[in-house]
């Protein structure tokens, strides 16, 4: 005669171990993955990895474009400043901090 019964819960997909004499729950095993076969879980995991890769690629490409724009702006500002200095025609170099001593 069995002392325990094993039951599968249709709602939470858990396996329950119930004492035959007292009717009390002895143990419970979570079974959340029983509803999907292993191949489907694996394909879901692969899809998640591919989506993560796409997100990372998009982030890095947008960051790269942002850096290109910043570099162009810095070069433009440097060119304008250089042109301004050439147009003003500075005769002597600017004072250095240790020249003031």
How would you characterize the overall build of this protein?
- The chain folds into 2 domains: 1-35; 36-86.
- Strand 1 and strand 2 form a beta hairpin.
- A 3-stranded antiparallel β-sheet has the order 1-2-3, with no helix packed on it.
- The protein has 1 helix and 3 strands, in the order βββα.
- The protein has 101 residues and is an alpha+beta fold.
Q: Any chance you could write out the topology, listing elements then pairs?
A:
Blueprint: E1 4-8, E2 15-19, E3 25-29, H1 38-88
Antiparallel strand pairs: 1-2, 2-3
Arrangement of strands in the largest sheet: 1-2-3
Alpha-carbon Rg, integer: 36 Å
Count of discrete alpha- or pi-helical segments spanning 4 or more residues: 1
**Helix fraction?**
40-55%
User: What class do helices, strands and sheet pairing give?
Assistant: alpha+beta
Mean pLDDT: 86
Oligomer: single chain
């Amino acid at each position: 005669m069995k002392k325990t019964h094993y039951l599968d819960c249709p709602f939470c997909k858990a396996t329950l171990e119930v004492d035959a004499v007292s009717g009390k729950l002895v143990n419970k095993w979570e079974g959340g993955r029983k509803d999907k076969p292993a191949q489907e879980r694996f394909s879901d995991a692969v899809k998640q990895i591919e989506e993560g890769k796409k997100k990372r690629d998009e982030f890095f490409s947008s960051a790269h474009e942002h850096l290109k724009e910043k570099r162009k702006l810095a070069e433009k500002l440097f060119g304008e400043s250089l042109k301004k200095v050439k147009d003003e025609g500075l005769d002597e170099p600017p004072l250095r901090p240790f020249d003031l001593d």
